[in-house]
Write a structure and sequence with these properties.
This is Thioredoxin domain-containing protein 9. This protein is α/β, with parallel strands linked by helices. The protein contains six helices and five strands; from the N terminus they run H-H-E-H-E-H-E-H-E-E-H.
């Protein structure tokens, strides 16, 4: 008997809270609609100009990224080039690989796709046999390794396939999600 009364009371309180929340949301939406209805031509024109300016800036940023080598997955020949490339871009994914390692080829396929999709990030690869100093400095011991560099500092690593489901047939989306977790690309 008491249990039924407390459940009934709880459901009424919950129903009341839900009603109040719904009313608040409805009032907010009504006020936004009213603001839009009351906009005059000048306000609409200013809004349109702000949006156009934002689009122009986005297009300009895209062109700048493309001029710096974003949008493609390419190999850099030496350690010296690594430092130059990292200085040029805010977000860099560098794949440390070896030709004889099968899993590096798997990673290459996914990185080609992601490089075209995420222009905000530069995608590079560097042969570990040509970069012993850099591999020692970054403590790269397992191949393949992705070094995730943001603002000139190595912020994270994806070592092997452990973070990708520990399988050779992980999806590009899985790798994209993992890189997004490190905020190295916009996921």
């Amino acid at each position: 008997m008491e249990a039924d009364a407390s459940v009934d009371m709880f459901s009424k309180v919950l129903e009341n809270q839900l009603l109040q929340t719904t009313k608040l949301v409805e009032e907010h939406l009504d006020s936004e609609i009213q603001k839009l209805d009351q906009m005059d031509e000048d306000e609409l024109e200013r809004l349109k100009e702000r949006r156009l300016e934002a689009l122009r800036k986005a297009q300009q940023q895209k062109q700048e990224w493309l001029s710096k080598g974003h949008g493609e997955y390419r190999e850099i020949p030496s350690e010296r080039d690594f430092f130059q490339e990292v200085k040029e871009s805010n977000k860099v994914v560098c794949h440390f690989y070896r030709d004889s390692t099968f899993r590096c080829k798997i990673l290459d396929r996914h990185l080609v796709i992601l490089s075209k999709k995420h222009l905000e990030t530069k995608f590079l690869k560097l042969n570990v046999e040509k970069a012993p100093f850099l591999c020692e400095r970054l403590r790269i011991k397992v191949i393949p390794t992705l070094a995730l560099v943001k603002d000139g500092k190595t912020q994270d690593y994806v070592v092997g396939f452990t973070d990708l489901g520990n399988t050779d047939d992980f999806t590009t989306e899985t790798l994209e999600w993992r890189l997004g977790c490190s905020d190295i690309l916009n996921y």
